[in-house]
Amino acid sequence: MSDHEVAHRLATEAGKLLLEVREELADAGEADRKAAGDKRSHDYLMEELARERPDDAVLSEEGVDDPVRLRAERVWIVDPLDGTREFSELGREDWAVHVALWQSGQLVAGAVALPAQGVTLATPDPAPPPPHAGKPRIVVSRTRPPAIALQVRDRLDGTLVEMGSAGAKVAAVIQGLADVYVHAGGQYEWDSAAPVAVARAAGLHTSRIDGSPLEYNRADPLLPDLVVCRPEYADAVLAVTG
């Protein structure tokens, strides 16, 4: 099984497990669903990666950071449940599972599962987003859109699309449901690695907000800002954010 297939299978299966957790705990509190979802998806991914790729290192949001990854040539970067709050709210679809592979300085494979939508977007050849002739759509947090995204909306004369998790937002750009995602409020490598891998494979622009490259598997996994957009909007977006 190729690395692309491993990423796709693990993200998809973890997503199915999370749907089961949601159903099992439908009558429980949101905090219980959050905790169970994080743990069970993390445990599943760790077990499967240990079986499928026992020689690779792993960086997971829910795991203890092992410094051995800094000496490894291959590191899986995973977010077992991106958008925990949205997952805990029954009926919401804007949450995701991220599975990415970093190898020798580059993201080489990735998958973003959107379990409640029945969709997994993955490398090596995701479909590019379809054309969009209307105003640029800037996808933002449904609760706290960053000021920089509002500035981009104003510069592009665009509209805002509210959504939950980072993975769901990038997926919306990949799917052609939005055109620009700009974030400057703090994230970690697991929040963007898989979405960025898939977005790049789909031909989208990805970078830091100053235009510099996104780098992964660093000693400090904080990666606080991100731009993912259609290539035709990159210069205009970076003129605001950079």
TrEMBL record:
Q: Which SUPFAM superfamilies match?
A: Carbohydrate phosphatase (SSF56655)
Catalytic reaction list: adenosine 3',5'-bisphosphate + H2O = AMP + phosphate
InterPro entries, alphabetized:
CysQ/Inositol_MonoPase, Inositol_monoP_metal-BS, Inositol_monophosphatase-like
Its domain of life? Bacteria
Q: Which GO terms describe its molecular function?
A: 3'(2'),5'-bisphosphate nucleotidase activity; metal ion binding
User: Known CDD domains for this protein?
Assistant: CysQ (cd01638)
Q: Does the keyword Methyltransferase apply?
A: no
Q: Which cofactors are named for this entry? A: Mg(2+)
User: What's any GO biological process attached to this entry?
Assistant: 3'-phosphoadenosine 5'-phosphosulfate metabolic process
The alphabetical list of record keywords is: Magnesium, Metal-binding
The record's listing under Gene3D superfamilies reads:
3.40.190.80, Fructose-1,6-Bisphosphatase, subunit A, domain 1
User: What does the entry list as the binding residues for Mg(2+)?
Assistant: E61, D79, L81, D82, D191
Q: What is this protein called?
A: 3'(2'),5-bisphosphonucleoside 3'(2')-phosphohydrolase
